[in-house]
Design brief:
678 residues, alpha+beta, Rossmann fold, Calcium-transporting ATPase, cytoplasmic domain N, seven-stranded mixed β-sheet, six-stranded antiparallel β-sheet, 21 helices, 22 strands, 17% strand
Length: 678
């Protein structure tokens, strides 16, 4: 990812509401400049307010001094000030409306405001005409502030962007762009600096501030052998790091890429509001036009003056009602507050170490009724330990450990590492050079040629398929069976502990409205059952191969074994590369941690830590965001419907219309901003 391409596109703009002018996004310096420029545009409006106040004073003096009916000779100076105030406060709106008309975009909020305010001038309602523009621009100013705050909640992630790296060159270090560093290079990270690329510490000790990545307040210790992620901040010591990923694939780059994508994926309700505004605005203009013309024609001919006099006398009144109708009908409260709510929710989630790739996924999570967890590394710590070694005669414990250790020597799987550790602790020499052919059978185990013998190490199914008899063990853990030349050699029992917050995560999901929490695992049913009972799961499916997980998910979509699953969305949570297919197939795929690129790419939501309880937080945020969105929709439509009716009946003035439009918009925006505090 090139530096000039690293922009956060947080676009909160919809057709039908051009008051949502696009603010600057991208690098922090650019954002600050655009922020200043945005507020500068409101200076003429501020001057217009002062001129408007002066015009009101002159008008009052002219009328109280016995002058002719306003704007007669005594009121012309005041009229001139009203016109000046109108141009200062609303000139930009008029120009934007003309530009949009030339582009073919007629029915937007600029057009509504221009039409309503100019119409007020035409019927002699000069103060009201200026007030429409002033209060509209005041509302715009508050909207800009709300949008800026919403953007900053996500754009704050730009703090993780590394600016440079100290690359080792000979006996010294050269300061370079992070993209110039490649895997295998050594970099120096000084105290107070951001870690520029993912890597492994080869020298030094320090504490890392990972709050921008994970939302964790406590620093993490880093020492030789520790994996460090780009975007974290080195707090204390000097670290030498061997880079493991290119800059474009580093954690910081992945996070920024996910945030960029979030703005382009709208929730269904956002798309509905956008379409609604596209048809709603021209509809209300047509209704306002009918309100101005049809009643005078139907109700004309009143009294002695006849039809034409009745029409002439009633037309200004109905035109005034039509203008009130236009002011109230502006859809700004909806088309600003709805996307603002989703961005607030996404921003609030990001501060908790939860990356949501779009508002559509946040809305889908709100509709979820089933969560399926992978087991190893997701609900459990993924830190395995060999708890029992039992050799079968005539094999010795040392032979069993050697066979198992050699078979698992080439694997990085947590279970394999636990066997390697047990072999080392038992003083058993495991030499890769002694191994012959080596074949790994996914979901089964390993076939190895060692000392001219065929060694099998894997699950019970693996030995069964090869015709090797063995004892049927039912233990709460993982069992690795070992055979040599067709004879059962023994087994190793391996246990994995649940994560500290796994049980509370499941309770939190239920509190957030999830109806059932299930588990998929490749472990035996005995192990899965014990864990499910400990954590309080609603069910589990054990002994699943990677492809079996997808098939089992399809069965859940079909209604499950009992056919009693609801119609809500299904969430799958996993952390390994073998989870990528089922993450992609589920309604909402959730990747835990930043360790597996394939899982992160396939997922819709990424939990930056290994804590399953973060998913419960995400579900709660989704529920809160959903409530806020519909509160705003119902409130805005309800209030506008009431004022529109009153305006059409002549029971609401232009001032009421202005306050109703701006007030509803501001209240909806302030309510939307609550989502940021999720």
């Amino acid at each position: 990812m090139e530096r000039q391409d690293k922009r956060i596109h947080i676009k909160v703009r919809h057709e039908g509401c051009s008051c949502c002018a696009p603010g600057g996004h991208g690098e922090r310096e650019k954002a600050e400049i655009e922020k200043k420029e945005g507020w500068t545009s409101f200076i003429p409006m501020g001057i217009g307010v002062l001129v408007f106040a002066g015009a009101l004073v002159l008008r009052r003096l002219a009328l109280s001094g016995g002058g002719e009916a306003f704007p007669g000779p005594g009121g012309y100076p005041a009229l001139g000030l009203f016109i000046i105030a109108y141009i200062l406060s609303g000139g930009e709106v008029l120009l934007q409306s003309l530009k949009n008309i030339r582009k073919g975009t007629i029915f937007d909020e600029n057009f509504l405001m221009a039409l309503a305010s100019l119409g007020a001038f035409c019927i002699g309602e000069y103060p009201e005409g200026v007030a429409v523009m002033i209060f509209y621009r005041v509302g715009e100013a508050f909207q800009e502030a709300a949008l800026a705050r919403s953007r900053s909640s996500i754009a704050g992630l730009m703090d993780i962007r590394p600016d440079y790296a100290h690359l080792k060159r000979g006996d010294g270090y050269l300061r370079v762009e992070p993209r110039e560093v490649h895997p295998g290079d050594l970099i120096l990270v000084k105290p107070g600096e951001k870690v520029p690329l993912d890597g492994v510490v080869v020298e030094g000790n320090s504490a890392l501030d990972c709050s921008a990545l994970t939302g964790e307040s406590l620093p993490r210790d880093a020492e030789k052998g520790t994996t460090v992620l780009s975007g974290s901040i080195n707090k204390t010591g000097l670290l030498t790091v061997r880079v493991t990923k290119e800059f474009g694939e580093s954690t910081a780059s992945q996070i920024l890429r996910l945030v960029e994508e979030a703005g382009s994926k709208k929730a269904p309700v956002e798309n509905f509001i956008t379409s609604f505004a596209r048809y709603y605005t021209p509809a209300v203009v047509s209704v306002a036009l009918g309100l101005a013309l049809i009643p005078p024609l139907i109700l004309g001919g009143q009294g002695e003056a006849g039809f034409m006099t009745g029409f002439a006398g009633s037309f200004p009144s109905w035109l005034h009602r039509a203008l009130i109708f236009l002011v109230v009908s502006c859809p700004c409260a909806l088309v600003i507050s709805v996307p603002l709510s989703f961005f607030g929710g996404i921003g609030g989630a990001s501060r908790r170490g939860i990356l949501v790739k779009g508002g559509n996924f946040l809305e889908a999570l709100n509709q979820a009724d089933t969560v399926v967890f992978d087991k190893t590394g997701t609900l459990t710590r993924g830190i395995f330990k060999v708890t029992k070694i039992e050799a079968a005669a005539p094999f010795s414990t040392e032979e069993l450990l050697r066979y198992a250790g050699m078979a698992e020597h080439f694997s990085n799987h947590p279970i394999a590492r636990s066997i390697q550790a047990a072999a080392a602790e038992g003083g058993v020499r495991v030499d890769q050079a002694e191994a012959g052919s080596h074949e790994e059978i996914p979901g089964r185990g390993v076939r190895l040629r060692l000392d001219g013998r065929i060694v099998l190490a894997g699950n019970a199914r693996f030995l069964d398929e090869n015709g090797i008899s063995h004892p049927a063990l039912e233990v709460p853990g993982t069992v690795v069976y070992v055979s040599c030349d067709g004879s059962y050699a023994g087994h190793l029992e391996i246990s994995d502990e649940p994560k500290a917050d796994a049980k509370s995560a499941i309770q939190g999901l239920r509190a957030a409205g999830i109806k059932q929490v299930l588990m998929f695992t490749g472990d035996n049913s005995r192990t899965a059952s014990a864990l499910a009972e400990t954590l309080g799961l609603d069910g589990f499916y054990g002994e699943l191969l990677p492809q079996d997980k997808v098939a089992q998910l399809e069965a859940l979509y079909a209604g499950g074994p009992a056919g009693d699953r609801g119609k809500g969305k299904i969430v799958f949570v996993g952390d390994g590369i073998n989870d990528a297919p089922v993450l992609a197939r589920s309604d909402i795929g959730v990747a835990m941690g930043m360790g597996q690129d394939a899982a992160i790419e396939a997922a819709d939501i990424v939990l930056m830590t290994d804590e399953p309880s973060r998913l419960a937080d995400a579900a709660a945020i989704a529920r809160k965001t959903h409530r806020i969105v519909w509160q705003n929709i119902i409130f805005a439509l309800g209030v506008k419907g009431i004022i529109l009716s009153l305006g059409a009946l002549g029971l609401a003035s232009m001032w009421v219309a202005v306050f109703a439009d701006v007030g509803v918009a501001l209240l909806a925006i302030f309510n939307a901003m609550r989502a940021q505090r999720a």
